[in-house]
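explain this.
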Amino acid sequence: MTDTATTPSTDRVLEELHDWLSSQWDPELTVGAWWERLGLAGWSAPSLPANAYGKGLNRNDGVRIARAIAEFGALGAPNGLGLLLAAPTIATHGTQRQIDRFVKAIVTGQQSWCQLFSEPSAGSDLAGLQTRAVRDGDEWIVNGQKVWTSNGQKADMGMLLARTDPGVPKHQGITYFACPMVQPGIDIRPLREMTGRALFNEVFLTDARVPDDAVIGGENHGWAAANTTLANERAGLGSGGGSGAGSVAVPGTVGGDLDRRAGEFVSAGTGSSGSGESTMFQAMQAGRGLLTDLAQANGVDTDPMVRQGLARLYTWEELGRMNGLRMKAVKEAGGDIPGMPNISKLSMSHIMRLSRDLGLSIAGASGMLHSYDPEGRRAIIGATGRPSLPIVTELALLAQAPPIYGGTDQIQRNIIGERVLGLPKEPNDDRATPFSELPKNA
C-alpha cells in the first residue's frame, strides 16, 4: 500500500478538486482573494462539516486534498491554529451564527488564531488555570497570564480558557472564549527558544474585554470545548497527521500577507517576511527524505548504522500513516479507536528524537555548526556546501519541544492508561472540591 492509496470516493473528490483548480486558480489574485475562493468552496478545510464551510470528509482525505493543491501548483489553505484547532472546535460547540462569524473568517484566511490555554502554574494540570473572566454587562473582563502561546504576535483572535466560577470544582467553572487579540488590554511578549527563534510567547491580559456572544459552548462549559481542541491538536500534531500540508503565507490581518500576490508564495516556496517559520515546520514533515539526501551528499548512505537508522525512521513514519488509514476505515464504519490521537502524538515525539539523533550522526562534525540568523545560515551553507545542514541542526534543537507542547508525553500516557486501558486514576478530590478551596501552586 502506497501513500497515495485512495478509495473510489476519494478519487472522485480529487478529480472534482482538480477540475475546480483548473478553472479557479489564478496566481495573479491576492492571497486574500484566493483564500476566499478556496475557503467558500469548501477546499480550505474539507474535513469540517458542510455547515461549517467544509465537505464532511475525514482527516486523511483532507490531508490528501492539501497535498493535491500543492502538487497542482496552487497556494494552499491558510495554515495555523485557526484551521487546525479553532475551526473544528467552533464547528462542534458553537452556534451557526458563531460558525458564520468565526469559521468563515478562518477558512478564508481573514483571521489568524492562537491558543490561550497554558499558564505558568497550569500546564499539565490545565484545569487548574487561574485566569479570571468576570461578566460586565454584555462583555467579560479578563485578567491573568498565559504562556507558550504559539504565534500569538501574529494572531487576530485567541482561543481563551478562563475561570468564570471558582465556587465549583475546577473542571466545571471554566469558559471557552473567542478573544480578540488586538486590544489595549493584551500584552504579548516573545519567548526566545534555543533554536534562536521566538515562536512562543507569554501573554498578559489586564482588563481585556471579550463580548458575551463570543462564548463558545456556553458559560462554565468550556472544559468540553477545550477537550475538542486538545483532541484535534494531538491528532494534527501526531505522526500521519499532515500538520505541515498548508500554505506558507501568513493568514490574518496582523501577518500582512493578504494583499500580496498569491503566486509569489508558490514560486518562492518560503515563508513570508523572511521569517522561515513555515519553512521550518514543513521541513519537520520532510524528515527521512531530507536526511537521506544529506547522507548521500556526505557519502555515508552505505554506512550500516545510518541505513538502519533510516529504516527505523521509515518504519515509524509508515506506522503513523497506517494508523491514519486504520482510523479512516473505522470512522467510515461508524466506530472509533480510543486513544489514537494520543498514540499519534507520542509517535511524533519519538520520530522527532530519532530524526535528531540520526541527523546529527549523518552531519558529523559539521553538525556543531549552527546560526541563529539568515546571514549566518547562508555562510554555513557556503562553507559546507550542504543546503540542508541548517535545517538538520535546527530540527535537532527543536526536537526537545514536541514531547512537551500539545500535552507532554507523560500526560498522553496517563490519558491512554486511564481512558483507554481503564487503569485507576491517582487518588484526589479535585473533581468534587470547589476550585477556590483547592491548594494553589506558588
Observations:
- Residues 287-407 form one domain.
